[in-house]
Amino acid sequence: MSDNEEKKEIRVWCDGCYDMVHFGHANSLRQAKALGHKLIVGVHTDEEIKKHKGPPVFTQEERYKMVRGIKWVDDVVEGAPYVTTLETLDKYNCDFCVHGDDITMTADGVDTYQIVKDADRYKEVSRTEGISTTDLVGRMLLLTKNHFRQGEKEYAIEKEGSSNLGQDHSARSPWTGCSQFLPTTQKIIQFSDGKSPKPDDKIVYVAGAFDLFHVGHLDFLEQARKHGDYLIVGLHTDPVVNKYKGSNYPIMNIHERVLSVLACKYVNEVVIGAPYSVTEELVRHFKVGVVCHGQTELPMENGVHDPYAVPKMMGKFISIDSGNTMTTEKIVERIIKHRIEFEERNSKKEKKEIEAYEAMTKAKQNEKAG
Ligand code: CTP
Ligand code: C5P
User: Ligand 2 test: best mutation among 214, 258, 261, 296, most atoms within 8 Å of CB?
Assistant: First the structure.
């Protein structure tokens, strides 16, 4: 290999809707980044998505911001075209395009990556099984709790024979009709930056549900991180969140929430199952310099307990105004308001995918036979 070849910076292109961005999207971007040096991500406009697939849950501004917040992303191209062309790759100096091993089609059923595939400027990464927007929407609409991870109770639910899928099974896409996400230590290692704080680092600690990780969380964490050098996020367990939020909250279980938060570029470390109250022991253990909370209501146990009483007493508490009023509940409200449109969108998408999958399988069989 010549010096020139060795020094060449490989620029990777990814594009998508990134609507209700979750750790499946983040994992595809992580794998894409590993194929080169710089990762450029094109995000489609609301208009384009509406035309090809149906209305998105999040606005383009929200989606651009969420993708920018993912730690493997170097640059975001706003309003990238739905069909990926060689002109787009060249315009942003990208060597090739990366996509998950599912199929994306235009409204007319054309593979959006056919052009780059034909030009041999396309690489595939494996889609993360067990997580999809479709499934999350299903959990919200049907108010299921089967995704909770809470030991004994979870076992009881599974023993009763109920499915963990919160949606109708009539049309199940071979790609997005997911089964259960199986968390592994390997996945956590891949998402974690693996760095301990330096001896002089000021440690910032925040805690909460961080359910359906959204722009409000992102803006809050950006502000919190500015109060120190190393940010630790404590995640409450599913039963704890359910106790103060009620209904079928959290929508994402603790394993899912861990990965969503770890994918955020402001986060250094996550406590998996943090105590509801910030204790003196926790502050000492993690050498916490400051504890932050946003403007959202404090989750009160029986309406009387302040989980930040200890850090407040220690003079270590800061209240942050993220300037963003998004909440997990608002997302669920948006989905419920547009439920008919989403249900139509999902069943149309799944039907299209089943047809494409069957056609692909048939073509492969014919190839083998011939
Ligand atoms: N992706 C993935 N694993 C998932 C979900 C998405 O690897 N569980 C990848 C897709 O393969 C694609 C990228 O994330 O490379 C962006 O996907 P996007 O266009 O936003 O669509 P999906 O999330 O696949 O679609 P939907 O919202 O309809 O579920
Ligand atoms: O509600 P949840 O427990 O997920 O919130 C986690 C943290 O993010 C809390 O400190 C909350 O105040 C903050 N937050 C914020 N702005 C939002 C949403 C959440 O500051 N829009």
Answer: 296
